[in-house]
# Entry
Amino acid sequence: MRSTRRAASTVVLACLLLASCKSGSLGTSTSSASRSPAAGASGSAASAGGSSGPIAVGAGPQKHYTVQQQPAAGSCHFRYKNGEPLEDPKCTPGAISPAVTQANLKSTICRKGGYTSAIRPSAYVTGKEEKLNAASYGYTGSMRDAEYDHLISLQLGGDPNDYRNLWVEPADPGHRSGSGVNNKKDPVETKLHTAVCKGQITLAAAQKAIVTDWTTALATLHLG
# Structure
């Protein structure tokens, strides 16, 4: 009888220990699973920064644009090269429009009569985004001297309203305060656009060069 009770007690004890082990294992698994989305998001954000990977594809032109959420205030930082302002690649890695491809250049960015005016977001939308993005970059200068700029310009197939493709670009060095927007990036975009439409370089090459560093884009592509 005693041996039977001892055997039963041993079985009960073993079951309790086994249940405890399984409970601990499940707890660890649940905790790990609850952390994985955050870890995944962090990993995605890290890989998006910089210009080593493929450029993100945005939503493209829309009939009705809405104000896009911007990076957290103070989370973005300007870089400077030879005094020229560059975007923070983690906040503004660039985004291209799916509506513009190498195959349809003649009917999009290279068509006569222009392309960009028909797809540009309204000043109402970009005005609100600009203020939010200025806070993202910690920009406190005059908004009249800054440009809410597409990193990949619309004339190079940049996405019109993807937050990843827009940033508050400060004025060039030596710029007289209050004299309005004037930067050296715009002529670079125009030269790249001309080269793309003439078939001297591919659309992808132009987009990659300006995302990597707009100050060296022309030299990188041997466009002078």
About this structure: Helices lie at 2-48, 123-137, 185-197, 203-212, 217-220. The chain has a mean pLDDT of 80.
